[in-house]
Amino acid sequence: MGTLEDEKQYVERCTAGLRRMLEGARDNVIVGESVAGDRYSAERLGRHLKSLAKELSEEPEGPPFFGRLDFGQDSAEHSGRAYHIGRRHITGEHGGPPVVIDWRAPVARAFYRAGARDPQGVAVRRRFGWSGTTLTSFEDERLEQGEEGKSRILAAEIERPRVGPMRDIVATIQPEQDDLVRADLDASICVQGAPGTGKTAVGLHRAAYLLYAHRQRLERSGVLVLGPNRAFLGYISAVLPALGEMEVEQTTLERLLATVPVTAVDSEAAAIVKHDARMAEVLRRALYGRIGKPVEPVAVPDGSYRWRVTEEELRRIVDDTRRESLPYGVGRERVQARVVAAIRRQAEARGQTANAAWTRRIARGVTPFLDAVWPAVKPAEVLYGVLRGDTACGVLTDAEWAAITWAKPPRSVKTAKWTAADLVLLDEVAGLIERPRGYGHVILDEAQDLSPMECRAVARRSEHGSLTVLGDLAQGTTPWAASSWPERMALLGKPDGQVIALTTGFRVPAAVVELANTLLTALDVQVPATRSYRSDGRLRVTEAAGLEKGVVEAVREALAFEGSVGVIAADADVEALTSALGDEGLKADGRLSVQPASLVKGLEYDHVIVAEPAAIAEAERRGLNRLYVALTRAVSRLDVVHARPLPPQLSRSAKAS
Ligand SMILES: Nc1ncnc2c1ncn2[C@@H]1O[C@H](COP(=O)(O)OP(=O)(O)OP(=O)(O)O)[C@@H](O)[C@H]1O
Fold it and tell me: Where is the UvrD-like helicase ATP-binding domain (predicted)?
């Protein structure tokens, strides 16, 4: 076991190792481009090495390791060996063993899982404390001797004041989180967790872990992270690069489905119908309703001869193809191929050879029949027909039809104005025509807010892959928010996906959790109780003579502390509060921000000021859920400032505090 001085020298070895890796990768770029056998391999090798060099040089500078495992003599595999564990593998000198092991390697698992009761062969677990990139301390737990304590370094990491974007948690992943991070690639899982239990953190680390453990498979198929909005994506975007993973696609569902610009807004009633699962059947019928019955034989000219396929045979071909439940576009091709094949059989019976040019010519001759019976169609044309009310069918009620159909239909598809919900419907039709690109693994955050139709859009993209679904039923704010996870997992195409609860909160201090929990009873959701890891923190409820004045005062006080300050208000109050703060010289900058309640999901601030809870609760149908989200963004301190009475669901406990 080394002293702090020894460990500092080890840091030097790591720095040298990293330098060697970077130089090696750069040299290899130059050599790799000229040594490969052919141009194709040269290009591939060059691209691989370049991206490695780029990755290494762009990687944010951080501590090279955060932990160390010393195995005891009776460990079967690692007897007497020691390993430093870090964010990335660092190679040793002269081809020797690595100086740092990647946290995702199998041996590193014991760092997260071993304990006094089950040491897993580990004699000593060491955690390191850093100030920037300077090693300052370490703590040892002699697990084999039954020693395991609450770590000071761990507590400090969890309780540190927050500033800026989200950071990785590799040094402090907890056993219940590690189970989820390292779950099998083929397992689709759903994580239900109260605010701050680390769902997002777990999802991002799972992406990094899967890319390490199944690199080849996932490099081809890709990993997709879906978040609720841009602010959230900006907040989490640095985590995966810090873990050495640059290639994960991180986006919102709206952006993923954005095939046309959104220039119109639905009424809530229309949006509710458009997001209902029954719309899938409405659209399916509208699309397949375009397929007609052959009403005459096909006659295809071929020189002076005309090939004929009877009406009866054509009907059989169309019916058989329909029964195969292929994507609409594939079905069209299949019908064409089958009609051509029927003609080819006739030609061959007459001793004619059917070469490629002949087949193409006959296929062209079949096209008019195809256009009449199984026409090529674009998603927008189908949806245009539905919203114009062309295809009223039994699926929706008259009132529902009235809600979604255009009062004044646009003159053509081209002039139609589409809404956000229409994007989802267009995607549904596009998916019926042709299967979209799938991913090897999709991580879906804030999944409780997805509508059944949005779930189907995700399911289409993970049909042959797996899913990590993250959410909290209590934080559902959309009119179609989930009330049960098994039902959502079924809509997401993974009915057998396991639902697992995370129950320790790492963000919100106990006093704040208690306040937020009083709202839970009013929210009418079944979620497991959570305990907060944090006993620190402060909650203050202030009745102010005027809201703006009260908020200005609270912000002034908050800025005296270290860390970020977030003022969260009903969307309609944001402008007035921002200008009131500006008038007092309190401008939103890196540390202070004023956020509409509708945009704070998934975010956190060290100090939160929730302005006028009643206004947040009243602003929308699920306003109490929105208030629950707002109240649970605080890491260290929560100020609730109100000029009007608090919502009754909250006031009981707030008065007590
Ligand atoms: N094991 C851990 N060690 C240190 N910090 C952690 C750990 N787990 C979670 N955290 C921290 O707790 C905070 C909340 O995590 P995260 O945002 O992932 O929670 P969440 O469950 O997604 O919350 P919400 O439901 O509010 O979106 C973050 O600052 C995260 O870094």
Answer: 172-509
196 pocket-lining for ligand 1 (C-beta < 6 Å): yes
d(CA 25, CA 56): 9
Asked if the model's pLDDT at residue 336 lies above 90, the reply is yes
Task: Evaluate: CB of 200 within 6 angstroms of ligand 1.
Answer: yes
Write out 176-189 in H/E/C secondary structure.
HHHHHHCCCCCCCE
3-state helix, strand, coil in the chain (%, to 5): 50, 15, 35
Paired with 128 in beta bridges are: 138
What span, in angstroms and rounded, lies between the C-alpha atoms of 441 and 221? 8
Closest CA to 254 of 233, 281, 237, 269: 233
- Edge-to-edge strand order for the sheet containing 592-596? 538-543, 634-642, 605-611, 565-569, 592-596
Q: How far is the CA of 169 from the centre of ligand 1 (A)?
A: 8
- Determine the pLDDT at residue 526: 86
491 burial via Cβ count (<10 Å: 0-12, 13-18, 19+): buried
According to DSSP, residue 447 is labeled G
Mutate to test the pocket of ligand 1, among 191, 197, 603 (most ligand atoms within 8 A of CB): 197
Q: What ligand 1 atom has the least distance to the C-alpha of 157?
A: 4
For residue 494, what pLDDT band results from cuts at 50, 70 and 90? very high
**Does the beta carbon of 471 sit less than 6 angstroms from any atom of ligand 1?**
no
> Which residue puts its alpha carbon closest to atom 27 of ligand 1?
602
ipTM above 0.95, yes or no: yes
Identify which of 138, 63, 53, 55 has the alpha carbon closest to the alpha carbon of residue 100.
63
Give 138's contacts (C-beta < 8 A, 6+ positions apart).
4, 7, 68, 126, 127, 128, 129, 153
Query: With a 6 A CB cut-off, is 177 part of the ligand 1 pocket?
Result: yes
- pLDDT bracket for residue 49 (50, 70, 90): low
Cβ(174) to ligand 1 under 6 A?
yes
Rg (CA), the chain: 30
Instruction: Tell whether ligand 1 has an atom less than 6 A from the beta carbon of residue 448.
Output: no
Cα–ligand 1 centroid distance for 117 (angstroms): 27
- Of 419, 118, 100, 67, the C-alpha closest to 265 is 419
Residue 52 pLDDT > 90, yes or no? no
Interval between CA 359 and ligand 1 midpoint (Å): 61
Euclidean distance between CA atoms 56 and 58, whole angstroms: 6
Ligand 1 contact, 228 CB (< 6 A): no
What are the pLDDT digits (tens) for 78-111? 888 999 999 988 988 877 889 999 999 999 999 9
